[in-house]
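Hi X.,

You mentioned you wanted examples for the new student's onboarding notes, showing what a folding record looks like when two proteins sit in one file. Here is a clean example. The first protein comes first, with its sequence line followed by its structure tokens.
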Amino acid sequence: MKRPRLLPLVVAAVVVAAALGGSFLKQRARRDGWAAAKAVPESAATRLAMMQTAAAAATPDRPDAGPPSGGALEDMFAARKLIRTASVTLEVTRYAEAAARVEAIAAAHGGYVSDAAVSRDPGDRDRGTLTLRVRADRFDEALRALESLGKVESANLETRDVGKEYMDLETRLSAKQDAEARLRDLLRNKTARLADVIAAEKELSRVIEERELLEGERRYYDRQVALSTITAEIHEPRAFLRESALSPLAEALARALPLLASSVAALVYAVAAALPWALLGFLVWRLVRRFRIRRLVRVAMER
């Protein structure tokens, strides 16, 4: 009786098992791929929802909310720290009258004339520079009033925002005030050792000095912000019609006199420097001439 051959059966079983396993693995991989593909949109959707939530929190509740109200804008502009300066050059008919009107303009706009300088040029024209300090909220009005005094030749306007510097200054000043209060409380209790008390007093003196310096700097900023600066340079026009026909000649002669005096002075220096050498040359020439004459006389006598 022949035994059945087991090897073909085993091989067939292995092949069937491998085919079934491969099919199972393909189905599982396909299922996992669909799951991963679904996970990406859900993550993106989640992030989008979070961004929309944050944007909704950052915007006003009302969908039709517009820009900030007028009161908010006024507060924002009031919080700015602006230092405004301007300079203007004017040609006026009479300097004295214009200078008086400049002072009146400064007083009318809540300010004063801080500096003034006047001079007269060779053309017999008065000119000067006046520095005005006026209220910041009336700066534009004062500048327009100055420009109406005469012919505007040049004008310059500069605005500097010192809000950041002012906020930093306020922060440092607040920190110094808090440190001063803590040190004063420490010295008021007097529960520490003597060495600690002495060190605290020294530190308090240093903090007070720094706080006073910061307060002085803040007062300077406050004054610069409260009062704007305008520099007005005014001058009279050149009076061509009042000059005579000989005025160019007189002016040329007046300018030539210093040149002539300089030339004469240079000549005097040259003569003073050359005179000793001229005398020495004259003496040498006389000696040589006398020597030659004596030689000629001796030669003539010998013949």
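Then the second protein repeats the pattern, sequence line and then tokens:
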Amino acid sequence: MNVKIPQSAGGWSLSGPPQRIEPKAIFDYMDGAGELYLGYRFKFLEVYQYHNSSQQEILVELYWMETSDDAWGLLSGDWGGDVIDVGPVPGDAAKARIHALYGAGLLRIWSGNLNARVLTYQETDASKEAVLAIGKAIYAGRPEPATPRLIRALPSTIGPNFTLRADRVVYLRSHLVLNSVYFLSSENLLDLGPNCELAVGAYRGGAGTDSTKQVRVLLARYPDETSARAALTHFQRVYLPAESHSAESLAVVSIEDGWTGYSRSGRGLALVFEAPDETSARLFIEAAKQALDSVEVLHD
């Protein structure tokens, strides 16, 4: 898998070969979080342990995912922590990407189809230095894919007043993950699954807008046009008032918490939530539709 696991880092030494955990055993390894990894098409996990002379532990978890998009999605679930430089990144465009975050003894890394976690339970200057050294060794020589297409398609600004929040951008495939990011329904309202992908962005208004509210944009891609059409029908039936149901592929609707818009184009579905008025809802949904169309062009 092209990962270098150092035998030692600072005063910590590798305790032995890794423990390998397959998807069917993920719930035996962790309590409650297994669904998150399965939702990102987790293939298997390698667990390494380091100890120093005082028996203090550093835990290394290498989550091997089906694609780089899945591994990036795991990182996107929490942008908290300090951005860490874990190694040289080729190309000017790649320098803007976040590859690693560190906070409270935990280093999280995205590198190709790998999502790595390096954790010290007793954070000291020495243990932090060892954690970062292990992380840099893991990252060294790894491939440098782009971020998911749907994430790159999210407009950085919409209209004159709304700006995308970089710390609220999430990529996912599972409705369980979506509900933790932006709750729509206890059921799988958008028919999400392993063969779907969804980008979620939050837009904050500028001067003249209510800065406490954020407009949400969801860009979804399905395996085919039939699946996208069925997902839109499901969304309309459950989420929107009956009198607003329409066969149209683009519409905006006033509901209890603001204006909602939707647009379906081919295998893509765009949704807007909590727009402050009809004008901005239409502005958002048109921008989201253009973003989806751009993804289809790139895909083709």
